Amino acid sequence: MFRKCIYATFLLVLVLSAVVYAGPYNEAPMLSELVAAGKLPPVEDRLPLEPLVVEPVESIGKYGGTAHAVHMNPESLEDGINLNPYEPMLRIAGDYRTFVPNLATGYEYRNDGKTLLLYLRKGVKWSDGHPFTVDDIIFYFEDVVGNDELTPVKPVYWRPGGEMPKLTKIDDYTLQFDFAVPFPVAHMYLPHQTGVQGAFYLPKHYLKQFHIKYTPKEEVERLAKENGYDSWWQFFNAKQVSTAISGLADPEVPVLRAFRMVSNEPSTKVFERNPYYWKVDTEGNQLPYIDRIVIERVEDIEVYNMKVILGDVDFAGFNTDLASYPVYTLNAEQGGYRVLLWELGLAGVVGYFPNFNHKDPVLREIIHDLRFRMALSHAIDRDEINQAIFFGLGTPMQANLLPFSSYYKEEFANMYLEYDLDKANALLDEMGLKKGPNGIRLRPDGKELSLNIIFTAGEHGMEKTSITELVREYWSALGINVSVTSVDTSLLKVRVDSADYDVTLWHIDYTSDHLLQAQPKHLVPMAVSSRWAPLWARWYMTDGAEGEVPPEYIKEIMDMYRATMSTNSPEERHALWTEIARRQAENLWAIGTVGLTPKPIVISQDLRNVPEQGIWAWDYFFGVIASPEQFYLDR
Amino acid sequence: MGSYVLKRILYMIPTLLVISVITFIIIQLPPGDYLTSYIATLEQSGAMVSEAEIASLRRQYGLDQPMVVQYLQWMWKLLHGDFGMSFQWNRPVRTLIGERLGLTMVISTATLVFTWVVAIPIGIYSAMRQYSLGDYVATVIGMLGVAVPNFLLALVIMYFAYTRFGLNITGLFSREMAAAPWSVAKFVDMLKHIWAPVIVVGMAGTAQLIRIMRAGLLDELGKPYVEAARAKGIPERRLIFKYPVRLAINPLVSTIGWSLPGIISGETIVSVVLSLETTGPLLLRALLSQDMYLAGSFILMLSLLTVIGTLISDILLALLDPRIRYE
Amino acid sequence: MREQHQIQASTTVDSSAGDRLYGATQWQLIWWQFTKHKLAVGSLVILGFFYLVAIFADFVSPHDPTKRFSQYIYAPPQRIRIVHEGKLRMPFVYGYKQSLDPKTLNRVYTIDKTKIYPIRLFAAGDSYKMWGVIDGNRHLVGTGDPNVPLFLLGTDRLGRDLLSRVIFGARISLSIGLISVFLSLFIGLILGGLAGYYGGAIDNLIQRLIEILRSMPTIPLWMGLSAAVPSNWPPLRTYFAITIVLSVVGWTTLARRVRGAFLSLREEDFVISARLAGASERRIIFTHMLPSFMSYVIVSVTMSIPQMILGETSLSFLGLGLRPPVISWGVLLREAQNLNTIAVHPWLLVPAIFVVASVLAFNFIGDGLRDAADPYSHL
Lengths: 635, 327, 379
Prior knowledge:
By secondary structure, chain A is α+β, with helices and mostly antiparallel strands.
């Protein structure tokens, strides 16, 4: 049974990669010139044996042009990543569930799931022409992740059983991972880089000159000092940022992405096509179609919006918000762009997390009472939220899973969902929380029942602030003294880590099958970001050394989660996940609001091959699901 | 004079020491440190960080040391001309500030010139025609610059410059020029964009100058020597520009010293709104993310400039007006 | 320098002003001079009006500022009309209906001429508890029904009446200026006075302190101090914390001015005479010197209030100041500072007009006072 399943998965991957194009190949005019001048080998020699064939969304593209985008965070290129994404081993398919080949062409489990064999695409080359092999992955795991100076924080997902896997090179294109315990979900981590604070692979041939294992330490330290760094690891980290998810780069470091950086100014980054890019379209044209990407940095969200309506950008999605939709459409003609409405792949732009580890025993007991959580949920008028903030285009839902999830059930998303103030009040009355003289309910110890909602605006900040303003009033209507505090990220972290808050909130991400497997933070208290029970999560993470011992019913969920990671039966895994999701829905660990809200994506009139509809979420790498390497400019 | 200047310079040393301590405390005041926000960011992107890993990160960044030790290390480096590394950018602080300094100074100087060119004539006019309609209008316009919150003004100008006149004034360069090397064309391109920040920032400064100019000139105009000159029949225009205006400008000249730190830091809020790659937003971001060395070294640099600026102001004032005695 | 001219100026006073002038008290003289500055007088009237409105905010505002009309999100301001179908009527507003433009997702409001809501004085409306003491439900203007909208300045993103919010915002923003200035004044007077009167080592120490505070860039100072305000404090306490933040940064200017005034007064003839006559230090300061420099202090205070008001808005811009659900002009402006507002809902920028008006008014009053503070000059 197990063998068969694995074989089926493996076969699926092979079948998908069987869309083979057998040449001849074409290339961009700017590259043909270089080839003619003898500065570059011909296209056939640059492409791998079997290049990845990408089917264009609308039509075969035209070569040329410069695409523009802007970003705000100095630590990430934001929309720049959407145009020039990180290349993972596998990619997520259009159904948002299955995986298709990318740098890897297939994988295979052996030894009851304790061994993973990874097959790389043969003949892929770095942007400097050097071959990409399993050595680059081993270099990353052994010399970068394995080095405590370079990586004090180890990627957690590749440590099943608490140990890093052992990597063995079978040949240049076959890599064997040996895990300490069965880990037949390793492939779930291959299409997404979450939790791997690096790249999974690095250009060893280039970076080894900066690594103390391959170059004498004095030499590396001298280089670091020359470049203004205090120590070799700072310098190395500045170099390896190139291959990380952020999209930032050092022009000297070779990449596998569609574009390589050519200039890096504080306000402007310029990227040019990677002549060795390993993907072609269905007619054998080497991708990408676009010649150049220029990414400017702006300081303020309104300047970002201004750039959008000026028509200064070809693709904007990272920081666009629905509230600005009217001003986008108002200027669309003058700015020469189109506004697409995708869907935000969140099971709630906001979910509220009451603190199950509250230090105040009275309030804690109240929070532990399901009737209280039900009352909080029934008091929320989700239709008003939907109308006021999302123009009625979102879907009221609980903070559970999305329809794209394999484990989704409509009843989970709709549990305790309806707006019913009488029912909510009745539930609180039933709990014995009587109203005092001024209309505020009193706790069993005679104090007024107060809830403070503490949050940080951050991502989807506008929506979070507005919805919370409304929720404050909804809960006040129940006779609860509700206050709202907005703080910055680090203060929130300090408060959540020490379980020193009443209620906090977050958007409900990590609902896709692969990220749920990696980090089901909203369903299972297993990560610091499980904001409903941080101390139980710490207990889980430290194997009981720190935090607080959870009750039996929580331990059960934790055990179920562990079982999903080690079981070799997909059916059993499916059943376990469905049960975990049911427990979440029935117990209402978090209180949901409105999800699947519209997400405006602004693209210039000239930008083609962008899907009209799509899901925008970190779970699916934002715009990357649209295969940006096949975008082209029709100018 | 010489001993006065020397004394002042000696005073600067304890002042700067105290400032460095205050700066350090201010940066440490918010809960947590750079690592707290860094780890929060890591966790948001899905990482799980254990206590042991946090401890080793802290050691790596030198944040595990007691505050006093951290402070001394910072001062030690500063005294050797090393501004330290920025945590957030993973680049040396010197480089970060350096690459923004040129543009910042261009904008600030242009603004300063704008302010003077606008404020002095208005100030003179207002003083000569005190309580006339013109005086009122000039004062109201001058004051508007102070009264309108400049982040809003910047935003409104930015939007209407585009929708009404098709002008793009975000940033200092058009997008074609942004990545280009310096050339005449790029300089011209910059001139096309620089007016907006100059006006927005300059507006705020003019009212102050108008006021000083007007008050100073009014004071002078009431003096006997003006009466005497007028009685002698000297033409009004010559009379006013010969002495009173020159004397009234003296206190303005002394403000030049005070502008010194402003020239380096630029106007933070306007730079944020108009997306200018100046040093102001860099400092703001560093403070927000508790990027200790970047924020600290930069604040200290600005404070040093203020102290020097004050000294220059006082010396200028003393040179211009011999009546002022040195204490 | 100035005080020197004052004496010179006094010799040039037109003697025809006569006994009235010489017999008047200092305050009378200041007032007479002040009334000559027409802008200043006008400003005084406007500010007086603003403060009255702020004090009686519950009564003056047409609606409860936190009440949401979910059918009227981003409703534009209603026009007060007096003509309906060609006939003259008492002032009234038309009702309006919302529809969503599916293409632009813009909320479009159309006037519904069949719905006429007369504007009544002392109309019944949302109930309130003024200053936490007086219960009431009468509002200066209203339609008589709290659920019938009267949006003279339009509504915001949650359908709340902007005019009511501006009025309640005035309460915070106008008082924050006053309180912070008085705090600054308190610190400034004591330290500046000490420095100015005693001179020597004390002066030197205080001078250094001022120099240090003034040498620090404002924004980091603000940020550091605001960060020290615990974020779980209730709004009222945060409000006072912000006033303290503003005054800690702002007192140095006042202290410098006070010190300057003290320094020069110390050398004045009348102070020296008093000292020679054997008056105590206390008496010299409070009886002789204080009245003389009160005018300086008042001018400085008036000039500082606008900075405090603007400081509040800047703090809000940086996200360090007051936060919703507190209503202040800074909070309202922070919500309005986006392109969508400027392009689609420009009425939300109205709070800026009130900020500008009150800042201008304080400045003109300050100008008027300063011109008037030299009672013998330019008469």
